[in-house]
Fold this protein.
Amino acid sequence: MRRILGLLLLAALTACSTLTPSATPAPVPATETQPPPVASTVTQPAVHSLRIWLPPQFDPSADTPAASLLRARLDAFAAAHAGLTLEVRIKGSKDQVSLLEALSLTRSAAPSALPDLVALSRADLEAAALKGMVHPLEGLTNQLAEPDWYPYARQLGQVQKTAYGLPFAGDMLAVAYRSAQFETLPSAWNDLFLDRNSLSIDTSDSNSLVLLSLYLSTGAPLVDDANHPALDETALLRVLQALKSARLTAVGSGDAAWNAFEDGRADLTVAWSSRSLLDPRPDSALMPLPSLDGTPFTLATGWTWALAGSNPQTDPLAAELAEWLTAGDFLAEWDQALGYLPPRPNALKTLDPRGALDAVSQSAQVMPSNDLVLTVGPVFQTALGRILNGEAPEVVAKESVEALK
């Protein structure tokens, strides 16, 4: 009996000796040079390091104004959390696998090396969420519930109605035009071509985004009742007839379409807003892509911050950092330096005094799912090529619908 009691006592003492209380960071005294602590409604365990993955274009160590702004923002967050180290890794460069592939490989081979916070494009966020590679934000942040977001931005951060990301940059498909070209901006597609205006269009785009946008603007679905990819023949015929009557300058790449606009071979072009903002012409501007019926309809994509770490204890602080990096005052400067549109209306006001970019953002809808675009895009591309070659819209519409069955 004594031996049994002795063994029990020894086991109890051993168990007690392995319990280590969580370390609590010392409070940071407020000074004029230190940033205030970041607000958080989540009680957090001690976290001494956060790993952040970024693609090369967001590298905070680069010699650019955008990099300097991000570097200072990250430093301010670390300074507000005593003992915190932010480890930034650049993934997806030309000599490496893509950022999404890096996530997948690391998740399989070394989960402890996964990033706590990662910058993902909309397409990559969707793919990562569906594969369980990123975590839902529910219970970690309510920032998307704030009123200061464009409608498309809320869509940008959600996958199947669950929030997975906080948006920090928007990119819209818009019409570039010369500022003196229109007294009143066209609201309908056919009005673009008054006064014999021409529009350069990229026929190499396998997603055929111009045709996709026009089709979606009719309200027609991309799936049938069984949720299989399908096209509405009546809606597609309307789009093809509109393209048939338009003055289009067909070129073989996005760069060629932009160059045709720049050198005057085309009066208009359809381009992502980032292209125009990064390579602005002093006499050009952007407007929403008009629909067939007069209501602007602009496809949108963009970038979000998402949580991908393997340790749930880091999620609250990583979500707090994502909030810190999507605050409106910061995005107003950082997105302008990057050449993207802020997903928050108040942040966009500082670089959009006339409200033109706000109009583009208000009309934006997030791109359909990756799988749908990959399925219907080539059908649209083929249809566009046939129309440009002079085929009858009625025949092309019917055969395009049949191609998806």
